[in-house]
């Protein structure tokens, strides 16, 4: 052939291209570190100087654990699998629901009802069969956290509860694993690489842990409101993609001496020196606000806290305390179940409430109804109220109610004045999405003296619109 390319070069290229077919594994006694299929598959990232052959080999030998196969875990898993991370562990106890699909991109309509880990394994195997998937079809608890996390090199926290965040971070400190932590809610997200480098507790050169950044959990009531759960797919997707990127960077930056698995009770001095020499990036908190300009901000984080309960010299979190169950993460983060602080007389079931409405709609003698129509206050945010609402209900969002200060002097809020004008013999029925905010509202109304010293009844519609849909009106939209 006279196309200008020497035959020996051409033969070598053809030989390399045929690797994947299993026809040629060696040429002239040379063995390539990756298969022909791998050269082809990862070619576009192999030629990146940030990766190169050495980086690809580290990815191939690495194992990453993804805790939570939801809005964060799905895109993270897809990109890590695509990049050729050798082993991916997946932890999740949940099944795929149709309301997951707008953001959890590994799952699909046909997989509704399937476990999320099974669905993710199917997807990853379809994307890249070089990747070994290890499904952990369970929730992460103090009892299993160390056992699962110890099997992996890098951990991604893709969960959405404070209790699991503290547990995963504590476990990563104890096992000396770098942790890529992200969260997303509504239009915003956060990202941090924690415990990097993963030095033992008490070593000031180690990266800060989750407790260093957030020594105290957020108030439980702020975590469980009916307003929560709103999220835009690309927002959480962005954070998950960034988690995968940070994980790739952590793996590629790992020196080969660090590849050897670490024993819990054994500190390798040589390895420590290696880590000391290596300078990890200063820790940052990346904030993503998708409706702001600019959308990204980065905050420099301080190093480990001298008094951190997990990673300082005076740490109280130990393997023993974790294993013994003496660390109650749910308790630490506050009880997150419904508020339930109301008297039975302050609550009504959705069935009784429906009867009340039916009575008021039923005309009796002289065209007058049996009862006055109940005053129904829907305390969901306006955007939810606009989606669907009970006929005749009035919208006062809980965010407005909770921000009204009962002790403030001066003119009260307009909505308070309007409620006061309602005749005292008419009860106020409070409803929300799930029945939490409505209970808080009843308490708040008492503080605002809207019960007029007990002369007006303020009643929580138990279980909210979810219960209404489940027990009264199957056609009421579920969202
Ligand atoms: Zn710490």
UniProtKB/TrEMBL annotation:
Its cofactor is Zn(2+). PROSITE patterns: RHODANESE_3. Its main location: cytoplasm. It comes from Pseudovirgaria hyperparasitica. This is Adenylyltransferase and sulfurtransferase uba4. It is found in: Cytoplasm, Cytosol. Keywords: ATP-binding, Cytoplasm, Metal-binding, Molybdenum cofactor biosynthesis, Multifunctional enzyme, Nucleotide-binding, Nucleotidyltransferase, Transferase, tRNA processing, Ubl conjugation pathway, Zinc. The keyword Nucleotide-binding applies. Zn(2+) binds at residues 209, 212, 308, 311. It comes from the Eukaryota. The gene is uba4. Pfam families: Rhodanese (PF00581), ThiF (PF00899). Its EC number is 2.7.7.80, 2.8.1.11. One of its GO terms (molecular function) is thiosulfate-cyanide sulfurtransferase activity. It catalyses: [molybdopterin-synthase sulfur-carrier protein]-C-terminal Gly-Gly + ATP + H(+) = [molybdopterin-synthase sulfur-carrier protein]-C-terminal Gly-Gly-AMP + diphosphate; [molybdopterin-synthase sulfur-carrier protein]-C-terminal Gly-Gly-AMP + S-sulfanyl-L-cysteinyl-[cysteine desulfurase] + AH2 = [molybdopterin-synthase sulfur-carrier protein]-C-terminal-Gly-aminoethanethioate + L-cysteinyl-[cysteine desulfurase] + A + AMP + 2 H(+).
């Amino acid at each position: 052939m006279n196309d200008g390319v020497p035959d020996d070069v051409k033969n070598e290229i053809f030989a390399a291209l045929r690797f994947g077919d299993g026809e040629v594994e060696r040429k002239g006694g040379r063995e390539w570190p990756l298969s022909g299929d791998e050269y082809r598959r990862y070619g576009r990232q192999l030629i990146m100087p940030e990766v190169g052959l050495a980086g690809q080999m580290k990815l191939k030998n690495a194992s990453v654990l993804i805790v939570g196969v939801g809005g964060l875990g799905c895109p993270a898993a897809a990109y890590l699998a695509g990049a050729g991370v050798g082993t991916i562990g997946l932890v999740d106890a949940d099944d795929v629901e149709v309301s997951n699909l707008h953001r959890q991109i590994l799952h699909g309509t046909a997989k509704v009802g399937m476990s999320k880990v099974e669905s993710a394994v199917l997807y990853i195997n379809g994307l890249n069969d070089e990747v070994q998937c290890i499904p952990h079809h369970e929730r992460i608890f103090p009892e299993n956290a160390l056992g699962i996390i110890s099997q992996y090199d890098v951990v991604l926290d893709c969960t959405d509860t404070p209790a699991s965040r503290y547990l995963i971070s504590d476990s990563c400190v104890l096992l000396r694993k770098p942790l890529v932590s992200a969260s997303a809610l509504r239009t915003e997200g956060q990202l941090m690489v924690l415990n990097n480098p993963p030095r033992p507790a008490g070593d000031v050169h180690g990266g800060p842990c989750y407790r260093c950044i957030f020594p105290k959990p957020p108030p439980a009531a702020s975590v469980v409101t009916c307003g929560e759960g709103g999220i835009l797919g690309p927002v959480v997707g962005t954070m998950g993609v960034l988690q995968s990127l940070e994980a790739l960077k952590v793996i590629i930056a790992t020196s080969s001496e660090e590849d050897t698995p670490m024993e819990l009770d054994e500190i390798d001095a040589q390895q420590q020196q290696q880590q000391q020499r290596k300078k990890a990036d200063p820790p940052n908190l990346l904030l993503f606000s998708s409706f702001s300009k600019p959308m990204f901000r980065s905050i420099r984080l301080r190093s480990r806290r001298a008094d951190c309960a997990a990673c300082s010299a005076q740490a109280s979190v130990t393997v023993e305390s974790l294993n013994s169950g003496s660390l109650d993460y749910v308790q630490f983060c506050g009880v997150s179940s419904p508020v339930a602080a109301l008297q039975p007389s302050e609550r009504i079931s959705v069935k009784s409430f429906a009867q009340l409405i039916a009575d008021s709609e039923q005309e009796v003698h002289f065209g007058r109804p049996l009862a006055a129509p109940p005053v129904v206050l829907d305390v969901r945010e306006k955007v939810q109220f606009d989606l669907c609402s009970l006929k005749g209900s009035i919208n006062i969002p809980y965010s407005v109610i909770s921000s009204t200060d009962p002790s403030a002097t001066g003119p009260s809020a307009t909505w308070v004045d309007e409620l006061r004008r309602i005749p005292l013999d008419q009860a106020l029925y409070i409803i929300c999405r799930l029945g939490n905010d409505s209970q808080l509202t009843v308490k708040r109304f008492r503080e605002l003296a809207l019960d007029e010293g007990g002369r007006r009844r303020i009643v929580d519609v138990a279980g909210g619109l979810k219960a209404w849909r489940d027990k009264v009106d199957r056609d009421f939209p579920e969202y």
